[in-house]
């Protein structure tokens, strides 16, 4: 009594109405926990806010009594606080989605207590749906499929359970509510997945597939034509697929050979590497779509590239000499060496190229490659100090590269103490001493230029992972920036970013089998789910049509067979349904008791004890006469058969029927081999 | 409680659909999700959309499967009085080979009574009791049973109506009416009525056994004590034999008000008869020209109630009371004669 008075909530929860309310509250809190799972992983919500939301949801889920809603005046007090937190978490700086989801998460956390009350459930569920959709839309990992199936199973379970709770409250007469059967939930998920698969392929698509990583709203790893050191904040690593590369001809080059540049920048002002359109040369591919960029290579390799994101750039290795494009549309090439189309090309689009891994093919240097902003004169002394022991330009560049790699720290976090008034490169070199690849590459270009060594900044992709089918997948996470410097009468690539910041390159030859299998799964996921597009749909339709047109007779046979099969199935089903009531008599016992008696009759026929048409009672008498030990078992079978067949009683358990049948058969003498 | 009705209920061969709130939520949110997917090209949203539509199909097919494999059979009760709650046993059978039926609600069509059925296992049977009340006496066909399925996702309420074979005789309503009006009729006046002869009654004396005595009257303890056969001589119990007389002639046969009052009259007669019979008194019944001699016991009670359940009002002169009954206490509508 004392315990109950100390915990009035627990006592109240014993009342049926409150119990239902408590269970509804727990289901809603559980769903909130489940839906909040991908939020911090995808970056759409920051960890502290996601943690706060999860903590509130866990607290509500573990509560032993139905919680009352937060009073209105408290909600009013919390409102400015919520807005303040959203602003502090970045506000609108990273797009619209992130603050909206932040707002939804915080409001949902405030409204979660009391959400089980019927008047508040709808609004809370809408908030939860928004949060869930944002989390799902910003996920790119294969595990999204498993997560979706789990969410569906939980939703089915929760809705069915709540429905049963409501029914039990109204009509149950005090009986506790049932749980939905596991088979029902599993079957629901299975059928839903089965239906969803073709639906996913058939649903109309108008836009190119949108890499979900961008939904985070913040800065994400990925290729950008223009490098702006000021505008980049903390960078989220996106695993969205960018390119697919296959080495078609030639042996795999040694080292970090998979380096594809999309932009080469020359002009630096106040943290911005600008790419002007001045001096662009118009190129029209030849009759076979060929663009010649340089001389025939000494050690040629042929590469096939598929761009999986809409882009106007052609990504080329530094040593690319020839490009083979699928369409004869005009392209441009700027004086720095970047190649692109005059319009954005829809993804996916493919092209091939020939490159020399030992060379860098770029237009010769000009005065722009030596420009250093006036406010960065301090770089000259710094560069001279670092390259004090160098005897030539190559040596100086190597020293600078080594110095930057070893002295500075790599981070994707935005340095909060970076002043906007200071040039980012100067801040990086003299104060921050940490940053990401664009800081390293920018600093090295400017340091080289202050030593009168022509240099340019290149951005694109470095490395990739094998796709399990002989190629490589290049993701947004492989986006990188590096330096091309004109040393010893030739362009050469330098990469001053420390190893921890350089995207990894994995050769397919060194991977274990399980890793290759997983890569194949990821490849399938990337190719046929994440980047599935209208082009794929049309291609699928075209292939189907072509195969149908090529073998219409076979198709007709297939279609005819399918139709005939369906008709036969329907007729069979109809016949079964018509036969079923007469055959089953009392219902569902036919398969056990009737079959057991039929088996016994067959055994008796084999032994020539009875004739066709013998009744169960006659059969029982004959078997009991021949095998007195089996009398009790055969009587049990026949009595139960009659009870099911003629009296409409429930059939006994299958296991018991089989046991009795086995016990009967054990006493029968061996049957003649021919009968 | 009456079955839920909706303007949007859709009837199909073999079953009906009633949309529920979850459907409207689904109908509103799915196009929004589709628009978002179409606008962004985000395949995660397409995946979610496809799965949501798949869940809709799965829910429809599974609930249909459950409904298709359910049958219900009503087992009529031993007795049912009009206006009195009576439990009807209902046998619900699930012929699905693999899917248990959960959350099934049974309603009696045209009558009050609904019940949530406990889970019916695959290929199994569950028997439940549903309490209903028949509004009027007489023969009633067994009411059709409506089976409703809501799971797994409550987009629709799917229902099937299972017709029931057989009928039920509902006895007249029992009322707390005025004191019964007994008619004391001479025994000889009632044709076919024999003397009331029973072995029961109080023991008047013990005496020695004489030839011809019923051996069942032997008092075994006294026999053992006195070492000679002793029998109990009983005083024959005479039960009162009384009649209830119901005049079923109405001055105006088609008058609804009179017919309603006639029903009340029948209820009064039935109540008086049942009360007396339960006290062990012999009761006879005169309805119009037909006479049921006094009697006791279950079969007699049932016979009287069946007669009263089926009695119909007639016009003047169509079924007069016998002369010996017409003069005593008669259940008759005031002003009828």
General description of the model:
The complex is a heterodimer of chains A (675) and B (337). With 675 residues, chain A is of the alpha+beta class. Helix content of chain A is 49%, strand content 15%. In chain A, the strands form 6 sheets. A 7-stranded antiparallel sheet of chain A has the order 9-12-15-10-4-20-19, with helices on one face. Chain A has a 4-stranded antiparallel sheet with strand order 5-18-21-22. Chain A has a 4-stranded antiparallel sheet with strand order 8-13-14-11, with no helix packed on it. A 6-stranded antiparallel sheet of chain B has the order 1-2-10-9-5-6. In chain B, β1 and β2 form a beta hairpin. The longest helix of chain B has 26 residues. At the A-B interface, α8, α9 and α10 of A face α1, α2 and β6 of B.
The share of residues in helices of chain A is 40-55%
Summarize the helix and strand pattern of chain B as letters: EEHHEEEEEEEEEEHEEHEEHH
Spans of at least 5 consecutive residues with low confidence of chain B: 1-5, 187-198
Give the end-to-end Cα distance of chain A, rounded to a whole number of Å.
Answer: 79 Å
Looking across the biggest beta sheet of chain B, what order are the strands in?
1-2-10-9-5-6
Low-confidence stretches of chain A: 1-6, 211-219, 580-589
Fraction of residues in helix of chain B = 25-40%
Secondary structure class of chain A reads alpha+beta
Global mean pLDDT of chain A: 82
**Biggest interface, and residues per chain?**
A-B, 63 and 49 residues
Provide mean pLDDT of chain B, rounded. Answer: 84
Number of strands of chain B: 16
Largest sheet: spatial strand order of chain A: 9-12-15-10-4-20-19
Beta-strand residue fraction of chain A: 5-15%
Q: Which structural class matches the secondary elements of chain B?
A: alpha+beta
Rg over C-alpha atoms of chain B, rounded to the nearest angstrom? 32 Å
- Report the biggest beta sheet of chain B as strand number plus sense, adding barrel if it closes: 6 strands, antiparallel
